[in-house]
Amino acid sequence: MAHDGFALITGASRGLGMAFARALAERRYNLVLVARSPEPLHTFASELRHSNPVAVVAIQVDLSSPGAGQVLAEQLSRGGIPIDLLVNNAGFGLRGEFRDLALPRQLEMLRLNNQAVVELTYSLVPGMLARQQKGIINISSTAGFQPIPFASAYSATKAFLTTFSLALEQELRADGVTVVTVCPGRLHKNQNGDSAQPVKGKWAAIYQSPEEVVEEALRALANGGGLTVPGALNKFSVFAQRLIPRRLVPRLVAKMSRA
User: Fold this and answer.
1) Whose CA is closest to 119, among 92, 98, 142, 90?
2) Which of 29, 122, 154, 207 is the catalytic position?
């Protein structure tokens, strides 16, 4: 069934964002694609318009800029574009010693991974409440389940996003808004939306394709929301951490990170 509202996807010009866009277009969602890089964004939007009977709006914006989420929401409101589904997918991670990573870049990561999500959600939820079909999908990470030395700020942003999303799920349940918290592990590199190349070596089994993650997220959305950790090995890893004293987890992760 075709939707009269739109699904908004941030970080839509690459990887997981592109996979969400394709899957939702196949399900007859009209799309608002948001990304920082204009050329791949508009190229991808044109591709979707030609291959699916849906409306596709492309908006170039850098959500890591202060207040960008609110500005985007106001732009959608002025354009009369109703949002049924918000996919907070945009984000990035930095790796290295905290003291060695540039502070402006770390703050940019915090704004994109956390502030933009809060701004967009806060700004769009009031309009979503009047819609019959309404949902939020927040892309967090298994990195949010434990402190990760040498990715300390990144894992903290994902811990925030996971707890925020799970709490929001309960707050909005009575209002009919379905909230899905997705915590994938490592993904195949898939920058331009083409089929990802298989990963070889000892870590191959823990990598997933963006399409697998999207399918599990949309399944959770259809089943009423909640937390989903795609992949059997990822589920086992999250469960196993509960059996280890919390003070020891960062030490173990640090050793693995250095290996």
Assistant:
1) 90
2) 154
Catalytic site includes residue 29: no
Residue 196, Ramachandran bin (φ over 0: left; ψ between -120 and 50: alpha; else beta): beta
- Mapping DSSP to helix (H, G, I), strand (E, B) and coil, where does residue 171 land? helix
Residue 117 contacts residue 161 (beta carbons within 8 Å): yes
Task: Give 101-131 as a DSSP string.
Answer: S-HHHHHHHHIIIIIHHHHHHHHHHHHHTTS
Please give the structure tokens belonging to residue 119: 């701004």
pLDDT, tens digit only, all 259 positions of the chain: 567 899 999 999 999 999 999 999 999 999 999 999 999 999 999 999 999 999 999 999 999 999 999 999 999 999 999 999 999 999 999 999 999 999 999 999 999 999 999 999 999 999 999 888 899 999 999 999 888 888 999 999 999 999 999 999 999 999 999 999 999 988 866 545 444 344 444 444 567 899 999 999 999 999 999 999 987 766 656 555 665 566 665 555 555 555 4
Strand 6-10 vs strand 30-35: parallel, antiparallel, or unpaired? parallel
Residue carrying structure tokens 């927040």: 138
Phi, psi (rounded to 5 degrees) for 119: -60, -50
* pTM, entire model: 0.87
